[in-house]
TrEMBL record:
Residues 242-953 form the USP domain. Residues 666-687 have a biased composition (Polar residues). Gene3D superfamilies: Cysteine proteinases, DUSP-like, Phosphatidylinositol 3-kinase Catalytic Subunit, Chain A, domain 1. This is Ubiquitin carboxyl-terminal hydrolase. It comes from Cyprinus carpio. It is an enzyme of class 3 (hydrolase). Keywords: Cytoplasm, Hydrolase, Nucleus, Protease, Thiol protease, Ubl conjugation pathway. It comes from the Eukaryota. Residues 627-645 have a biased composition (Low complexity). GO terms for cellular component: cytoplasm; nucleus.
Length: 995
């Protein structure tokens, strides 16, 4: 496939139903290693689906050319953006489906296809959306690097050969490879048969080739890229105070590892080598002891006291090998990694070598104490490990059938508690309101709406702020200068994301016939390129969208182009300067230019788009456009009534009424919308008015139709027109032309108009086309971009604060099961939406509390930044445990905090760090990948807290060494007690950027 996949001419596609059936069937095929799949912009694909499901090939939802603009980092290198998410930003289609879509719709000029290979990785086959991009160089010249992309399934030998080829290294020259991490440490790549995945090479790393000298020696014992080996070897620091190198989006793993590393009973178990006696190599549910051994190696390095930072490369490889979801270097959830790791360690260290089958029994009215003890004994018969000893507790689950009132009581073990956060039933939305008042700039409002509400609720909230009735509002999502979606009032607000640019337009008809049916029309702004091709028998312009679109309401019938042109002049009056009489031109000049143009175009008359053309009203021109990739933040629409410019408008109307109107003449109207534009390609199909003059009969019919709508002077002028174009003494030229387009702002489906009126049966999208010189002269871009902020935007966003106890209470609240997860009632013999209640029965030595900050419902998806106030000491669970017979053997219920995993960012990306208390000296530290800093206790409670690690007080040992005193003489890039101004919750100057 060539770099530019655009074929220049798409083949005639089959019927819409056939298109959908063919593509849908192809998308069902299984992944096979070596096959090619292609990335498609999700928005384009969704619009294509909407189009084929309409069943109307003339539908305004026609998607136009395949456009992956939003997937590229820039339009120069065409590199794929980082952190794109499948089925949110893009979809994957197999090669055959891609080539069909490409042949039917073509692709935007110069865009390369985003082809990706299916790779066979351990335990999975997947499309490798992000190949590994690494830098290659020679040790003799570290500054001269070249980037290259490799699959994770490629062997190191392929990298070795690539370096030889690029730097012209002889095949006979003896060499060795080193890989350099982002923190300048390096490792030797000894096994060339290992894969890129196995060696944990990630994007941004460098592979260096070192060539043996002629005398048989190597240039250095180690490449100079390494950290000073003397510093590393001689370093002695507090055990456990050690960073973890980020291997590429592995901060989630580093955060979880730091929390577990600072869990005393588990770390002491590995440091004392107790795990060696309990490795279970035969457990079919385990990982042959490999996860436990890899974890033990990391812990021993971190607690040796000899490392600034440890590279957990082998551990990462093992995790990806046994859990395919963690393959590669995409971002993941630290809680998901922790869950896998605890389960993997448990199975690798399970003391039960052969698990027996145990039938679970319901309580059936038996005492809770009896049922709980039975459940725990049964659990230990199958699960007995250091993980169970340290992290497992027991809770009581009570289910009640809503039909027969059957009560089912069971006791189940848990490894951590996932507690919900109190979720507000309201949502804050920011919108831009575009008033009908032409003097008013768009206004940005911050509104409070119900989370489960609909678009009408948004309009109602805005109505309370503006006084405009909701029925006069239209809500739209503006994306890349066009409407991505125009919402119906009954649609759920959950389909609107916080990052969407939402505009609300006040609607009112600006034409006559107020009692007739109205239609909402979308208006786009486009700029024509200077290029114009006269050799094709038609006009050819490139166009690009700019500015903000408009939504206006007009009568479905009896709205001419002249009506619409005048209406738009009023709507744009704030930032479009009107013509003045001095800018009119003489008839003779125009006739001379017209004759010259006819000679150049074989007699085809078309004067639209030239700055010196003279038109009485707007013309229409059929064009294909290329969208601009820049999204605007403000809307520049103006009202249909302009009290501030009435004087100018009256003068303009008087001037127009005193002159014969040429915009309504048949020939001129057809010439105005004559030729098409296909992004600087010839386009003449579907537009008969571009190269032929109409017959006198057609002119008479059209003139009669227009006489009914136009002023007497205009109708009189039209009657004087013979069968060819004539000119009056003086005539006003138009600021812009108008063209019917599809919802993307392109004109690829034969949308030209053949008379002076518009038909809104299937095409409510109109583009205002500006000549570049006219736009520069009359369109004030600075003014168009201006907007004002309502006082609601000045109200600071109040961060919600809740107590951890509130979250625990929610955890034990009665809830009704969801339809996707019903309970089978043994009495009713069917699935029921039973009520469920969880109660804590017994707690482990180390209790992990997972704060469920990521909320996914059918109404919304969000990251909750609520501050959860959690105690660092004396967390008392006595009020949450079910009452049992009190005796002296029961452990206390008070816990102290020992570690916190933090998440900064949103749903799609972010950064993980951790706080942890060192078991030896009692000092709190802040871990940010390879950086470690002192932390103060008052910094630990933040809105980023995600996982809380508590240890029961009776198991906490007193520090064996005194806490260190921060010193300015400590090694660079190591411990620092400096804090950043305005950085709430951060222990040091740590940048909270995404990985």
């Amino acid at each position: 496939m060539a770099a530019n996949s655009s074929t220049g001419s798409a083949t005639e596609p089959p019927g819409l139903e056939t298109q959908w059936r063919e593509i849908d069937n192809l998308n069902q095929q299984q992944l096979r290693a070596g096959d090619s799949w292609y990335l498609l912009d999700k928005r384009w694909y969704d619009q294509w689906k909407e189009y084929v499901h309409t069943g109307d090939q003339n539908s305004s939802s026609y998607p136009g050319k395949i456009d992956n603009t939003e997937l590229y980092e820039d339009l120069d290198s065409y590199h794929l953006k980082e952190r794109l998410t499948e089925n949110e930003d893009f979809v994957l289609v197999p090669a055959e489906a891609w080539h069909k879509l490409l042949s039917w719709y073509d692709m935007m000029d110069d865009q390369p296809p985003l082809e990706r290979k299916v790779v066979d990785l351990p335990s999975t086959v997947k499309v490798e959306v992000y190949p590994v991009e690494i830098y290659l160089c020679l040790s003799s010249n570290l500054e001269s690097t070249v980037s290259a992309r490799f699959s994770r399934a490629d062997k190191i030998h392929a990298i070795h050969q690539k370096i030889r080829q690029h730097f012209n290294v002889s095949e006979t020259a003896e060499s060795r490879l080193w890989m350099r991490n982002t923190d300048t440490s390096s490792e030797r790549l000894r096994n060339l048969n290992m894969t890129v995945l196995d060696t944990c090479l990630s994007s941004g790393m460098t592979v260096i080739m070192e060539i043996r000298n002629a005398d048989g020696t190597w240039p250095t014992s180690r490449p100079q890229i390494m950290r000073n080996s003397a510093d590393e070897d001689s370093y002695q620091g507090p055990p456990g105070v050690c960073g973890l190198t980020n291997l590429g989006n592995t901060c989630f793993m580093n955060s979880a590892l730091q929390c577990l590393s600072n869990t005393p009973p588990l770390t002491e178990y590995f440091l004392k080598n107790s795990y060696l006696e309990e490795l279970n190599f035969t457990n079919p549910l385990g990982m042959k002891g490999e996860i436990a051994e890899a974890y033990a190696d990391v812990i021993k390095q971190m607690w040796s006291g000899r490392h600034y930072s440890v590279v957990p490369r082998v551990f990462k490889t093992k995790v990806g090998h046994f859990a395919s979801q963690f393959l590669g270097y995409q971002q993941h959830d630290s809680q998901e990694l922790l869950s896998f790791l605890l389960d993997g360690l448990h199975e690798d260290l399970n003391r039960v070598k052969k698990k027996e089958y145990i039938e679970l029994r319901d309580a059936d009215g038996r005492p809770d104490q009896e049922v709980a003890e039975e459940a725990w004994r049964n659990h230990l018969r199958r699960n007995d490990s250091v993980i169970v000893d340290t992290f497992h507790g027991l809770f009581k689950s009570t289910l009640v059938c809503p039909q027969c009132n059957k009560v089912s009581v069971t006791f189940d073990p848990f490894c951590y508690l996932s507690v919900p956060l109190p979720v507000s039933k309201e949502r804050v939305m920011e919108v831009f309101y575009v008033s009908l008042d032409p003097t008013a700039k768009p206004t940005q409002y911050r509104l409070i709406v119900p989370k489960a509400g609909r678009v009408i609720d948004l309009c109602t909230a805005l109505s309370q702020a503006t006084g405009i009735h909701p029925s006069q509002m239209a809500v739209a999502d503006v994306f890349n200068h066009h409407f991505y979606r125009i919402y119906q009032t009954d649609e759920f607000l959950s389909c609107i994301l916080d990052r969407d640019d939402i505009f609300v337009y006040q609607l009112s008809s600006g034409c006559v016939d107020q009692d007739g049916e109205e239609v909402v029309m979308a208006i786009y702004m486009r700029e024509r390129s200077h290029y114009r091709d006269y050799g094709s028998g038609g006009n050819s312009y490139g166009t690009s969208l700019f500015g903000h679109p408009l939504l206006i309401s007009v009568p479905r019938a009896q709205c001419t182009r002249e009506d619409l042109y005048q209406l738009l002049l009023k709507r744009l009056a704030r930032y479009v300067r009107p013509l003045d009489p001095s800018e009119e031109v003489e008839e003779e000049e125009e006739e001379e230019e017209e004759e010259l143009y006819k000679a150049q175009t074989n007699g085809v008359s078309d004067d639209e788009g030239e700055e010196d053309s003279k038109e009485a009203g707007p013309s229409k021109k059929k064009e294909e456009t290329q969208e601009s990739s820049q999204t605007e933040e403000q809307n520049n629409c103006q009202s249909e009534a302009s009290p501030s410019s009435e004087g100018e408008e009256r003068a303009e109307e008087e001037e127009l009424s005193s002159e014969p109107d040429r915009g309504s003449s048949t020939e001129e109207g057809q010439s105005a919308c004559g030729s098409t534009d296909t992004n600087s390609q010839d386009a003449t199909d579907g537009d008969q008015s571009a190269g032929a003059e109409p017959s006198g009969k057609e002119e008479e019919d059209e003139d009669e139709d227009e006489e009914e709508e136009e002023p007497a002077s205009c109708a009189q002028a039209n009657k004087r027109l013979p069968g060819r174009r004539r000119y009056t003494e003086r005539r006003k030229k138009a600021l812009f032309t108008m063209q019917a387009v599809n919802s993307n702002g392109t004109t690829e489906r034969g949308m030209g108009e053949t008379d002076g009126s518009f038909s809104f049966s299937s095409q409510p999208y109109i583009a205002i086309d500006w000549d570049p010189d006219m736009k520069k002269k009359y369109y004030n871009e600075n003014e168009a971009e201006k907007y004002i902020k309502d006082q609601s935007m000045d109200v600071p966003h109040q961060q919600t604060t809740v107590q951890l106890q509130e979250c625990l209470e929610l955890f034990t609240t009665v809830e009704t099961l969801e339809e996707e997860n019903p309970w089978y009632c043994p009495t009713c013999k069917k699935h029921q939406l039973a009520t469920k209640k969880l109660d804590l029965w017994s707690l482990p030595e180390v209790l992990i509390i997972h704060l469920k900050r990521f909320s996914y419902t059918k109404y919304s998806r969000e990251k909750l930044d609520t501050i959860v106030e959690f105690p660092l000491r004396d967390l008392d669970f006595s009020g949450f445990l079910l009452k049992k017979t009190v005796n002296s053997t029961e452990p206390p219920c008070r816990y102290d905090l020992i570690a916190v995993s933090n998440h900064y960012g949103g749903l799609r990306d972010g950064h993980y760090t951790s706080y942890a208390r060192n078991k030896d000296n009692g000092q709190w530290y802040y871990f940010d990948d390879s950086k470690v800093t002192y932390a103060r206790e008052e910094q630990i409670v933040t809105s980023a807290a995600y996982l809380l690690f508590y240890q029961r007080q009776d198991k906490i040992r007193q520090p064996t060494i005194p806490p260190p005193i921060p010193s300015s003489t400590q090694p660079e890039n190591h411990i620092s007690s400096q804090t950043c101004d305005g950085m709430d919750g951060a222990a040091s100057c740590v940048s909270m950027e995404t990985d």
